[in-house]
Amino acid sequence: MTEQDIREHLSTKTFGKQIYCLDTVDSTNSYAKRLASQGAEEGTVVSAEGQFAGRGRFNRTWISSPGKNLTFSLIIRPKLRPEMIGILSLYAAVALAQSVKAISTTLPACKWPNDVLIDGKKVCGILSEALFVDQRVSAVIIGVGMNVNQVEFPSPLDLSATSLARTSGHEFDRGLVLARVLGRLEQLYAFVRDGKLTEIVEQWQLCSTTVGQQITVEQQGGMLRGIAKRIDNDGSLVIVCDGTERKIFSGDVTMNEDGRT
Asked: Edge-to-edge, what's the strand order for the sheet holding 109-111?
């Protein structure tokens, strides 16, 4: 996929003004972080056909077939306090879910904190990383992996992953998909820029599979079981455990299908 493949569909003002299309890179997030530290402007995009050190949360490996999917990172420079940047993964998830819904016949769902699902399987993952200068947020890199045209996945991913092509029955123009995603990211960024974080939370909850459900949250310090009550404006998940509210900022969420809390 070339820069021209994206630009012929792009109608944004800022996001995608500068685009780097790479064949192979360690990770688009790492490359974008280097650019951001050198002063790259907000809206700069780094896209790659292949990553040899692509990663998700908790340094997990992100597996993607070269030439089939989208792996890209976006540089933004929001004026947010450090404790509020958790909302940005939700912002990105909403934009991705709304884009997927607009360009396909599927109904995607957001799973806290950073996944987009179709029929309960992962189609998009998000990794947001912040750069700080003098304890202030200088930039945030929003990394996205979106399964677009890959229809076969290695075991055991075949049980938990899907793609636009797999669920829709046809391939997609990846340049068009990326252009549409950047357009929606730019539109929703107005809420972030204007401090209207409640709007992000409300739109995320409209396509949430998490709020109101009995869940288990796996963290490095153990397991929590409870009912997902709400999302706060800092992007944290509030759950009720044994009648007490707990705020969770990170962790892996699974639904308790047997109803246990």
From this structure: 19-25, 45-51, 70-76, 136-146, 121-133, 115-118, 109-111
- Encoded tokens for 154: 């290695």
CA–CA separation, 55 and 213 (whole Å): 28
Cβ atoms of residues 94 and 207 within 8 Å: yes
Is 57 in contact with 68 (CB distance < 8 Å)? Answer: no
β pairing state of 109-111 and 45-51: unpaired
Q: Cα–Cα distance between 173 and 185 in angstroms, integer?
A: 19
What CA–CA distance (Å, rounded) separates 63 from 78? 29
What pLDDT, in 10s, does the model give residues 24-81?
998 999 999 999 999 999 999 999 998 776 545 445 555 667 789 999 999 999 999 9
Other Cβ atoms within 10 Å of 45 Cβ, number: 24
